[in-house]
Design brief:
The protein has 290 residues and is α+β, with helices and mostly antiparallel strands. It contains twelve helices and eight strands. The protein has a three-stranded antiparallel β-sheet with strand order 1-2-3.
Length: 290
């Protein structure tokens, strides 16, 4: 196979090594980029190469709380495919990440991603053949109450809830509600002014507002904004296990108050690259002729 400029460029991007070193490695392997990476790792101690242009948007989330409910952590670890997200080796890695985050009370990935953890991640990348990424970690500590956790059965949604007062079980129930309903804020007053103003603009532009006097528009808009805030605020939402009771009433009955929540869902906010297999094959054929 010819060693093209395209191959050299890809190897450089994946290894951060010099152009001549990459070209030499490709010549020695007759253009086999994966073998070139393997040989470079053997020869120079090169760490795991990047998986070029591969978006890690699958994976799992996990959570762990202290027995007394004083604090908890939630983590997201990504893979490229859902198949790998069910792999025992991958899940064992997630477990080790969660345990380390919990022990260190880590509030960021940097706290846990030391050399040992990075070497473990790189070894898993090489073994599985997919990009593996510790995407995010968050710590929640209860100042005057408890933290509860809920992880959905498919490990794609994890929630931590902090209550002032109450019990871990109550906090877990609220966390389950957050997982299912996905509120935006705890209280209506927590909604950002920008988001409220954006919602107002949307309401004003609705067809049934056209031609109405300004005072009528304002009255209708106020009613709809209040409805929007109730629907998106945790304490105002009907509790998922008992729709006749709001979450706020549930928590109050338990002698507590909702303080905060963290909700992780696998891949949220990651722009997934749409793969065009035919185009990819055509580009590879064109590259081999260049």
């Amino acid at each position: 196979m010819a060693v093209t400029a395209t191959l050299v460029k890809e190897l450089r991007e994946r290894t951060s090594l010099g152009m001549m070193e990459c070209k030499k490695a490709l010549v020695e392997t007759d253009g086999d980029i994966e073998l070139a990476i393997e040989n470079l790792r053997k020869a120079s101690g090169l760490k795991a190469a990047k998986k070029a242009d591969r978006t890690a948007a699958e994976g799992v989330v996990a959570a762990k709380i202290a027995e007394d409910g004083s604090y908890g952590v939630v983590v997201e670890v990504n893979s490229e495919t859902d198949f790998v997200a069910r792999d025992d080796g991958f899940l064992a890695f997630v477990s080790s990440v969660t345990d380390k985050a919990f022990a260190a009370k880590a509030g960021s990935v940097g706290v846990i991603l030391d050399d040992e953890m990075e070497n473990t991640r790189q070894a898993l990348v090489q073994k599985i053949g997919e990009n593996i990424n510790i995407r995010r970690v968050q710590l929640v500590e209860a100042a005057n109450g408890v933290v509860g956790a809920y992880v959905h059965s498919n490990n794609r949604i994890a929630v931590l809830v902090e209550l002032s007062g109450g019990t871990v079980e109550l906090a877990k129930d609220v966390a389950m509600h957050v997982a299912a309903v996905n509120p935006q804020v705890v209280n209506p007053s927590d909604m950002s002014e920008d988001l409220v103003n954006k919602e107002k603009e949307i309401i004003k532009a609705q067809p049934d507002m056209a031609g109405k006097p300004e005072q009528i528009v304002e009255k209708m808009m106020t009613g709809r904004i209040n409805k929007f805030l109730k629907e998106n605020s945790l304490v105002e939402q009907p509790f998922v296990k008992d729709p006749d009771q709001t979450v706020g009433a549930l928590v109050k009955a338990g002698g507590a108050e909702a303080v905060s929540f963290v909700r992780y869902e696998v891949g949220e906010g990651i722009e997934k690259k749409e793969e065009d297999f035919a185009a990819e094959v055509a580009a590879q054929v064109a590259a081999s002729k260049s």
